[in-house]
Amino acid sequence: MKVTCPFCDSYIEADENMNCPNCGGSVSAEVKEAEDLYRRQEEERRINEEKTRQKQAEDERDERLFEVIIAAIASVFGGRHGRGLLRIILNAVTGRGGRR
Prior knowledge:
By secondary structure, this protein is mostly helical. The protein has one domain (2-94). It is 66% helix and 6% strand. The chain is built from two helices and two strands, in the order ββαα. It has a two-stranded antiparallel sheet with strand order 1-2. A hairpin with a 6-residue loop joins strand 1 (2-4) and strand 2. Helix 1 runs antiparallel to helix 2 (79-94). It is rod-shaped and about 85 Å long. It starts with a strand and ends in a 6-residue tail after the last helix.
């Protein structure tokens, strides 16, 4: 892991319990801080990916529900024209404008 030595400002490749090869100063605190930052960023990335997956699943569920509602109401109104008109009305009411 690359860190900056707090004593001589050298940017070095280091691991925990290591001293700077340029000045001999300890860089273990910087390594720990960098590792902690990396772990936090990875956790954030994982959480964001999970939120994205959940949002996609909700969108797919909503789309299926939308189609079921259209089919159910269209069967009451009957025919292709009733289904098309119903889709236009539902799109306007739900704000789904450009969607199917």
